[in-house]
């Protein structure tokens, strides 16, 4: 798993968003970020090319059409 340290989390939040986070809060954020980066590296092997993201444009349009039809 990629190493994302609590210090990295704190620095990124401070530098990008001027947001301060405690060491206690930064630890689980760092662990989660590391796990997500690891999983993101394996997405290509899952064969998800034909699956539309849940909030992709075609799905939003289909939802809007359903809502409009109910009126």
Could you walk me through the main structural features you see in this protein, from its secondary elements to its overall organization?
It contains three helices and no strands. The chain is an all-alpha fold and 71 residues long. It has one domain. α1 crosses α2. The longest helix has 18 residues, at 23-40. The relative contact order is 0.12. The mean pLDDT is 87.
Q: Given the helix and strand composition, which structural class is it? A: mainly alpha
Distance from first to last alpha carbon: 50 Å
Instruction: Give the percentage of residues in beta strands.
Output: under 5%
Quaternary status of these chains? single chain
| Total count of domains | 1
Weakly predicted, low-confidence segments: none
Spell out the helices and strands N to C: HHH
* Total strand segments: 0
Number of helical segments? 3
The largest pleated sheet is described as: none
Radius of gyration: 19 Å
The global form is elongated
Instruction: Give the integer mean of the pLDDT values.
Output: 87
Helix content: 55-70%
Could you outline the blueprint of secondary structure elements for this entry?
Blueprint: H1 6-17, H2 23-40, H3 57-70
Helix pairs in contact: 1-2
Identify the notable features of this structure and list them briefly.
71 residues; mainly alpha; 0% strand; elongated; single chain
What is the structure about, briefly put?
The protein is an all-alpha fold and 71 residues long.
